Amino acid sequence: MANKKIPMRQCVGCNEMRSKREMIRVLKTTEEEIVLDTTGKKNGRGAYICPSSECLERAKKSKGLERSLKMAIPQEIYEKLREEMERIEK
Question: Phi/psi at 26 (nearest 5 deg)?
Answer without folding.
Answer: -100, 130
